[in-house]
Amino acid sequence: MAHAEIYWEGQSGKEYQYWIHWIGTYFTNEPGNFIYAKEVEPGSWTPLYIGQTSSLERRLADDEKEACAKRNGATHVHVHTNRGGVARQSAEKADLIAKWNPVCQDQGELPSEGVPQVKP
Known about the structure:
The structure is a single chain. Helix content is 20%, strand content 32%. It is α+β, with helices and mostly antiparallel strands.
């Protein structure tokens, strides 16, 4: 079964292709970026946490981040492999956080000019 794709735009205007999966999907042991998201209407998504990992096979985010995303309505995780190294993964993550300011992101990960959101 093929999974739907989505393009997330960063603050820079660059678009990043992700694949949409249910939370709990098993992934391969490859580095990548991921987004916990909720569908606010068919085909329209809100990112709740944006992250990166050295292995998509392992748990994507710590318990606190995943729990926050689920409390805020996350049902899916958007992922893609990223073999460009940690610097490239980090740059993509920062670009997306700067545009979307996800509610479950740590304050230290938010851009200084961004307005922090309060998590319930």
